[in-house]
Amino acid sequence: MISEILSINISKDIQVDGEGIDFSTMNAVSSCPFRGIVSNVLGKHFKDGEERNMALEAGDLSHKVYAVWRALSIKDEELQDIYVKKFLKQVVPEMPDDVFEKELEELVGKTTDCLTPLSEMMVYADWIIANSGFYDDEKDKKRTIENIRTSLMAYGSNFLALVADEPVWISEDRTKVGIELPFEHTICIKYVENGIEKVKYVKFIGKIDGIHVHKNGKLIIHENKTASRLDDSWLAQWFMSHQITGYCLAASDFVGEFIDQARVLGMQIPVPKTSGYAYRTERVDRPQYFLESWAKWVIVQSDTIEHYKDCPEKAIMNTKSCCAFYSTCPLMCLCTLPEEERKLAIDDMVVKKWSPLNE
Known about the structure:
The chain has helices at residues 23-31, 33-41, 54-72, 77-91, 97-111, 117-131, 145-165, 232-236, 242-255, 288-308, 332-335, 339-347, and strands at 2-11, 44-45, 179-193, 196-213, 219-227, 261-268, 279-285, 350-351. It is α+β, with helices and mostly antiparallel strands. Helix 3 (54-72) crosses helix 6 and helix 3 runs parallel beside helix 7. The two termini are 37 Å apart.
């Protein structure tokens, strides 16, 4: 039993080998160790019949737009130009530089006729959508280009009002800007377990959507989310979310201080036709004791990963997750097999691993 967390720090002296662990992986392992180990830690998938993850694709497309819109909100024109160009180029990394420069010139030219800031933002959004590679899937009538665009318009009008009070953070030397910040930190957790002092080093990876300055002068994390609904239960989950807590700790390495508040910005796809919310935001606090709860959770998940990553067929199966969110787990066919057959089936799967650092 972990009885006490003694300290939590980002270590600069110790480097942990391996790819690192992101929040999504730890969350998956927490829900069901077997599925989390196979799908997230090992990145194993079936060879044939894999459907597109439209929720992930729509979220990735939307985040590309969010990054450019944050850059457009920067008042410093020189920095604005640098970061708008940076995030637009990330949409088309394989496009030759000379072609991209011409596209950028034409894109900026289109904004001169815009009558409102939102219409200017949508010019950039339309270019991103057109060049992202995203396309409609006949099996998903919700996450279509038309619906995503409509949702972005609703989000954009609200974001304009928000960013006026909470501008993007820029370091004093202008070398850091709080947009799309990937991190790869060695977290050092000192704790007491069964009366014995121990140390756990975890390579924690991820990407912070935004660091902004709250109107009270304090720094605040922004975390963007796309969802199919933005009801009260969606809102309530962020009050305790370990993702938010971990990102507040990770952000301290960029700004030199612990950030104890965050804002979650939700965008619903599609926009509700009658009642509901197309956009919703909630500010949440992260006092120091939240870090202790997060640290205990990280220790348990990282221990589980270490224990089963080389023998996933033996991992614990949380049967409560077999049909979570009204859908059947795609790995259930493996869970019903004897352990030896399960191992052979896992070995035969293909590797297609997602990482927040590759987005």
